[in-house]
Amino acid sequence: MRSFIYFHPILRMSTSRRVWKRHWHSLHMKKRRRSHFMNRNAFTLIEVLVSVTILAVVATGLFQISMNSKNNFAFLEQKARFDRLSSIPIMHNDEKYHHKEKTLFDFLRTDYTIKEDKVRQFLKKEKVAYEEEEYSKFSPFADGSDDTDEDASLFSGEAEDTGQAQAADITLIFDKITISDKHNSTYVYKIKIQ
After folding, report:
1. By the 8 A CB rule, do 90 and 179 touch?
2. Contact in structure between 132 and 110 (CB atoms under 8 Å)
3. What's this model's pTM, rounded to 2 decimal places?
């Protein structure tokens, strides 16, 4: 028997399904290799390092803001506490306490009748320095001249002029009361009419 060798012409070979399939696969793989770095789903090491650095800078800023807020809140809380406690010496002010360091209980000694409790112990532990000084004087009806004939006529003895004389004699005295402890200080002004 005669063996037949079947040869495909080159033109026909390139169109055969088997060659086309192999040819398509190799082209597809080449395209895939070229575009692997362009169409990837993962991050490179540099991108990860840059993002971690950005996050670290932002986290440092947020941490600093948080600490500042916490310190401000603690300061305001301590200041509010001292203002509440300083209201005791302000309400029970007396010139005999001037330039003295007293406990809060010393200001309330006559008003606080309970013998033993935690509030009394707390008041005995809290010490404040008390200062009261004359800040300013103001005479609203004074004209500024001391020895004039007009002032002498004002204080003559007539019945009509006595009301004016008493009104001209009013003086406002502004006292500054300062309460302080080791860390805080507050002050108020007290007005006296003389």
Report:
1. yes
2. no
3. 0.53
